[in-house]
C-alpha cells in the first residue's frame, strides 16, 4: 500500500490538505526511520503499559495478578513482559513487588492513550463510524499509526470540532467528545 503526497480530510464542509512524505512500504518508511523495532513486541509493550497506567490510577501501582486479569493473559506472560519493560526502564517494582511506571513509562502510556482518543474521535465524529466498531479499530490503529499521522489527524479533528461547535451552538445542541489533550 502506498501513501502519496497529499490527502484530504473532509470535515463539515471544510477541506484540510494533509501533506506528507511518500512511503511505499506500510511497515517501514526509510524517510522517517519509522518502525525500527519489532511491531509485535511494540503492541505487547503498549498494551501492558496502558494496563499498568489504568490499574495504577487509584493506588499509584499495579499488581501482576491484576494486569493478567485486565489483559486476559497468564501470570507467567505478565512476568516475562515485566522483565522486558523493566529492562527498558519503563517500569520498576516497589518493596511490595507492586509495579510502578517510571516517568518515561508513564509518558509512553499517556502517548498511546492520547493516540487512541484522537483516533476514536476521528472515527466516530469525523467519519461517523459506529462507536463499537470505532473502539475496536482505534485499539488496533493506535499501535501502527505514526506520530506524524496522529498529529495530522489531530489537526483534522480540531478543525472538525471548531466547525461542529459553530454549527451545533447555532442550533443549541451539545455533543460529548473524547478528550485527547
What do you see in this structure?
Helix content is 54%, strand content 10%. It is mostly helical and 181 residues long. It has two domains: 6-36 and 107-170, no CATH class; 39-101, Arc Repressor Mutant, subunit A (Orthogonal Bundle). The strands form two sheets. Strands 1-2 form a two-stranded antiparallel sheet. Residues 1-38 and 166-181 have low confidence and may be disordered.
Topology:
Blueprint: E1 6-11, E2 14-19, H1 39-55, H2 64-71, H3 75-87, E3 91-93, E4 99-101, H4 103-126, H5 131-141, H6 147-170
Antiparallel strand pairs: 1-2, 3-4
Helix pairs in contact: 1-2, 1-3, 1-4, 2-3, 4-5, 4-6
The proportion of residues in beta strands is 5-15%
Q: Report strand order across the widest sheet.
A: 1-2
* Contiguous uncertain segments of 5+ residues: 1-38, 166-181
Number of distinct beta strands: 4
Estimated helix fraction: 40-55%
* Termini separation: 31 Å
Number of domains: 2
- Using only C-alpha atoms, the radius of gyration works out to 19 Å
The helix-strand sequence is EEHHHEEHHH
Strand count, sense and barrel status of the largest sheet are: 2 strands, antiparallel
How confident overall, as mean pLDDT?
75
* Individual helix count: 6
Give me the oligomer status: single chain
What general form does the structure show? Answer: elongated
Classification by helices and strands: mainly alpha
